[in-house]
Amino acid sequence: MSENFEGARGAGPAQRSVEMAVALLIAAFALVVIAGSIQAGIGWGAEGPKAGFFPFYVGLMILASSIINFGAVMSDRRNDQLFAEWGQLGKVMSMLVPTAIYVALVPWIGIYIASALLIAVFMRWLGQYGWGMIGAVAVGVPVVTFVIFEKWFLVSLPKGPIEELLGF
Amino acid sequence: MEEIVNLFHGFSVVLQPFNLLVMLVGIMLGVIIGVLPGLGGANGVAILLPLTFSMSPTSAIIMLSCIYWGALFGGAITSVLFNIPGEPWSVATTFDGHPMAQQGRAGEALTAAFTSSFVGALFAVIMITLVAPLVAKFALQFGPAEKFGVYFLAFCSFVGMSKEPPFKTVAAMMIGFALAAVGLDSVTGQLRLTFGQTELLNGFDFLIAVIGLFGIGEILLTIEEGLSFKGGAAGINPAVVFKTWAELPRYWMTSLRSCVIGCWMGISPAGATPASFMSYGIAKRVSKNGDRFGRGEIEGVVAPETAAHAAGTAALLPMLSLGVPGSPTAAVLLGGLLIWGLQPGPLLFVEQKEFVWGLIASMYLGNVVGLLVVLTCVPLFAAILRIPFAIIAPIILMFCAIGAYTVHNSTFDVVMMLVFGVVGYVLKKCNYPLAPLVLAIVLGDKAEEAFRQSLLSSQGSLGIFVSNGLVSSIMALGLIALFWPLIQNAFTRRRTWPAV
User: Fold this and answer.
1) Do A102 and B401 touch (CB under 8 A)?
2) How many beta-carbon pairs under 8 angstroms link A with B?
3) Exposure winner among A2, B31, B225, B305, fewest CB in 10 A?
């Protein structure tokens, strides 16, 4: 499972460009906050400061600090570090994409079945396990979780059509 | 001594069989959380918080705080054996702990780490026992302006003491405040920043943010770095333990200094991680074996572990007495208090004596139990870490999803968790600190309320924040903390001036 990144350094997005993009995104977020605050009212009402008063200044501070951060990255030309190598980002995506699908599936097929699928996918993709082992873990873990949450602690988790068929 | 009587009453609460069981379960879970990558104190406690909804608040806080102690202990195991810090505060422990393990002295290193953790925690708990009631009594006279002053001080110290660039800290913190403001405004009952989305009516829950930022984000970082668990064997036997214990008193000065550093950094919200580095750095400079640090010096394990645990424990002092948590995990515990229907702050010491002193007593006992558990079960916990990442990662993801869902029984929160996870990954890679973001989400509403109440009583004049000696000195302290790096620079420059 483990891979070593020895030898020549691979290619990838530069730390500088990512940091600039992040600073811009944060600035955009600040503008949204400022716009929302103005909508809610930033003046002085009957109960004192209106609802948008505090977030308005918070938004201004985010905007100011992200501009400063952007400037700091811009002027730091010596920074030639990589944000990450493409191979590393690929690994992150190999984790992120199944997780995103998992999160999207939970409302439809329930958390137990979705978790079983998630575990199976990871074990097959990243671990290259045999189907016997995959079956044992992918079924065993959700079943144990079911017993702990639904039976012992009486916490109800999202369930789908298959659980309904089984009568839960 | 009223405190002593209260403390003994606390012990009688903790010693009930159910609470003892809860304590043991909490410690075990905590060590596992501390050992596993991607699960840490803050999000571990956040994920397990829903399990405590049906318990009494006292049992619940005992369980959650014991998870926290367990996580503090657990971080050391992976640092020493695998050179992988399970928690950020155990990074400094790898410097000397892992070389010791490579030389076949893993047992010694682990014993030293656990014992130092215990000493640090004990020192901090004693300090909490003595100081917290006084601070709380003092804080009872605080009005809205003073309350806001305390929040101001806490957030300023974050900016001044953080290793990250100050404006990144400010940006992260203010993002937290903005997220906290989304939804129903608690003062006017008006909606704000929701842009017509009904999902945003209740705003962003900090528990979701914690699980996403620290849990999912951390797993993404872990997989990017490509983990390999190749570790030394974990052999601890009584002979090694007693031999190490016989050696440790020699380092009493390092230990004491680390305790003080830890407590100081824990109360001011700098936290356990900088405390462990600072303590290691100073020990290296002061010790006569300093040049051997980094090659397996036992003192290099004692210093960071003592400080980290002292800081982690001391972080509960401002949370208990002022309602201002000193660390993300303390913030999650504070969120727990709100969910169980308790109002954090100085009044706790008056109205919820059983709860407060039960918690303090459980800190004493929990750390003794923790020390025994980790000393006896190291091979077991090390075995957990040998479970391949391809199996453990989806299981951790599942628990994160369950934790996020159970906060409000909403699948939208699970989606938000994933979004926070990606945001956390990117921000962390760009050196934005996450702790102030989380703390701002937790404290945002309260800080805003205090700010608006103060302004209301002064008819909008900011003069209220310098209107009396108490509030002006708190605000002044805040400003000093904010500009601390500049002040420090000015001083060192003046001192070196004549030499130039």
Assistant:
1) yes
2) 192
3) A2
Residues ≥6 apart with Cβ < 8 Å to B350: B136, B140
Decide: residue A39, CB within 10 A, 0-12 exposed, 13-18 middle, 19+ buried.
middle
Burial string for B174-200 (b: 16+ CB within 10 Å, else e) reads bbbbbbbbbbbbebbeebbbbeeeeeb
Cβ distance of B401 and A58 shorter than 8 Å: no
Question: Each residue of A41-90: pLDDT tens digit?
Answer: 888 877 778 888 889 999 999 999 999 999 999 888 877 888 888 888 98
For B90, counting Cβ atoms within 10 Å of its Cβ (0-12 exposed, 13-18 middle, 19+ buried), the class is buried
Residue among B223, B422, B427 whose CB faces A91 most closely: B223
Helix/strand/coil for B321:
helix
Query: Mind telling me how many Å the CA of A2 is from chain B's nearest CA?
Result: 5
pTM for this predicted structure: 0.83
Q: Is A28 on the interface with B (CB under 8 A)?
A: no
Determine whether the interchain pair A58/B177 forms a contact, defined as Cβ–Cβ distance below 8 Å: yes
* Chain B residue numbers touching A26 (CB-CB < 8 A): 171, 175
Give B-chain residues touching A88 at CB under 8 angstroms. 224-226
Query: B425: distance to nearest CA of chain A, Å?
Result: 10
- Residues B120/B258, Cβ–Cβ less than 8 Å: yes
Q: Tell me whether A27 touches chain B (CB under 8 Å).
A: no
In three-state secondary structure terms, A44 is: strand
Share of chain B above pLDDT 90, in %: 14
DSSP, collapsed to helix, strand or coil, labels residue B432 as: coil
pLDDT in tens, B357-402: 988 998 899 999 999 988 888 878 777 777 888 888 898 899 899 9
Residues 6+ away with beta carbon under 8 Å from A32:
B193
